[in-house]
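Record 1 of the preview.
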Amino acid sequence: MSAVTDWTVETLVHAIARRKISPVEATRECLNRIERLDGKIHACITVDAYGALAAARALEAELAAGLSRGPLHGVPLAYKDLCHVPGLPTSCGTRTRDYFMSPIECTAVARLREAGAVTLGKLNMTELALGPFGDNAHHGDVLNLWKSGHCAGGSSSGSAAAVAAGFTVGALGSDTGGSIRLPAACCGVVGLKPTYGRVSRAGAMPLSWSLDHVGPLTRTVADAALLLGIVAGHDPREATSSRRGVPYYQRMLENPISGLRVGVPESYYFDGIDEEMDVGVRVAARVLEGLGVLVTPLRIPDPRPLVDVCNVISRSESAAVHARLVRERPHELQPAVRSRLEIGFRISAHDYLQALRLRARFTREFIREVFGEVDALALPVIPEPAPALETAKAGTVDDIVGRMGRFSRLTRPFNGLGLPALAVPCGLSSDGRPLALQIVGRAFDEATVLRVGHAYQRVTAWHLEPPRFSGRGGPVIG
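->
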């Protein structure tokens, strides 16, 4: 029997179906790994060992009886701790065990469970999803498995680290300004932010309802396609959930990408970025060119006005969501989190509504100017490989908040635009930190984004590189 770290979602599905490994064996191996290593990694907030093993036993009995609940029968998964799972607390990264209460199960979690997934537990995150570095004063800073003392990315830090560490073969995260793609890039895994409205957010704590997205983090693009196909689709309990049909993403992965037009932005997205990141992304674009993709430099609209507008929207909405906590228990919040929320109280209704109007205009202009020329964009996810956590947290609150904005500046525009965006590992820096390619497509065209990412992974091996646990005296992840 192979170690669970050797499996992907896709290969584990087949292995369980062929009785090479049982749901109980896979679940127990994940739980054992969490127990052995998470004291240093801090990827998990709540581990439901009893519930996970009970579910795995039931699924194993069904399999023995010739029954299957769906495409994930017996596969262990875990979820960011802003997804409501009945019977488990939802802290949202705060010190309050049951901070977020919901009358309904998170729809994305429910769909994975109905497809046969086993719930291992809830994963660490930046407090209230307000930060890109993966630090958390209440539950511990999430460890970067590639280089000790460096950021795991945020806010879905535990989701990325859990996949990288082999605690689970897949996880859910949320993304308001890059919070799936940033930790995926820092931890060397795949992260997908779907189109706005493609995946229901019902049963998940909102941060900014105009910008929030729920999506998968996995080891491979093929796994992301599999999970997206399960969680996507209309949900009557979520007002912004799209009624568009959901393609069979897995079947479309093998469609050739030859002839697709991919644009590499000429400005902003490569301005002032780390040299190794610049080279890594451009080399990845040349790999795509070798697969028959028509790669071309492209002038795109300056995203800074859009980002400014989205800052007004996100600050207004997050202040509204968390107003009670900020006003009644501000001492419980980390200073940078509290500062970001308090800004929202000073934004007028007029400015908020104007921001919504301008966002719609900027989105129309971007789509017309860019996707009339290309089918997708290729650009970096982060401006530098995972930075040192001590440096990221140093200085005044203003220093930290400014650093947050700079680190997430390459992902935030695509939350404002609502477009699908994929983070894919594309190399390692000279000191072993992951580099990452971001692939962006048209609204509701996740199929093309996934096809491009999958084709890239078929001819490269960066996603197969195992991280080495970098805690002092810690064991090697593998």
